[in-house]
Design a protein that fits this description.
mainly alpha, globular
């Protein structure tokens, strides 16, 4: 097997593994313990914000923890698989690249799984927390910068969606300005694109002025 085919195969397996992990949508799992499908309430989104509005603070906290953990777990699993299960004896000079490939592939899979979960009819959340966990795992400093930006926007506007969108847009430009590797730049633009696509209805509501703010009990539809 050629090195390119080996790398593509390894990355694909890591994405699939991350997808299976990410498909365990925490808000839907927690919601079942409360006898509620959060997709049928509030904004209809299977994520932390709608869980907070629908079920309260404790369930929302559990969703935060779960979404962060599965992002980290998917990255770690991707790294483990690509570095230990596949034969690397002829790829020693590329260990750093291959390790990062495993982490990024596992992380992308987790985000895709959260957004379109296999176990819940492919109707998931918007992937912000899981995306943040992946970024924090790969590049902690970038994650902290984006978190600070997100918190600043939310503090000033009380729009969680706006904070998510602004932070996601900032991510790829931050990566480019810092002169990162090509694969990391592609990853940054891709995950930012996913966040923007998943927030398209929020963006429309922000423009119209009827987006729900932090503290609102019910989302404006």
């Amino acid at each position: 097997m050629s090195q390119l085919l080996w790398i593509i195969s390894g990355g694909t397996i890591c994405i699939l593994l991350g997808y299976l992990i990410g498909s365990a949508n925490t808000s839907l799992i927690i919601g079942r313990f409360y006898g509620t499908d959060v997709r049928r309430c509030g904004s209809g989104n299977a994520g932390m914000t709608n869980t907070l509005r629908t079920l309260g603070k404790l369930p929302a906290l559990l969703v935060i923890i779960g979404d962060l953990l599965k992002g980290v777990l998917a990255c770690a699993a991707g790294y483990f698989v690509i570095m230990n299960i596949f034969n690397l004896q002829n790829l020693h000079e590329q260990r750093a690249f291959i390790g990062q490939l495993g982490v990024l592939s596992g992380g992308i899979g987790a985000i895709l799984g959260h957004n379109w979960p296999l176990y819940f009819g492919f109707r998931g959340g918007k992937g912000v927390l899981t995306t943040f966990a992946v970024i924090l795992f790969v590049a902690p400093m970038y994650g902290l910068i984006l978190l600070a930006l997100f918190l600043l926007i939310v503090a000033l506007t009380r729009y969680i969606s706006l904070g998510s969108v602004v932070a996601s847009l900032a991510f790829p430009f931050l990566v480019v300005l810092k002169g990162n590797s090509a694969e990391f730049i592609v990853f940054a633009f891709f995950v930012a694109f996913l966040v923007i696509v998943r927030h398209r209805t929020n963006i429309v509501r922000l423009i119209r002025g009827n987006e729900s703010k932090l503290g609102d009990k019910k989302a404006k539809l």
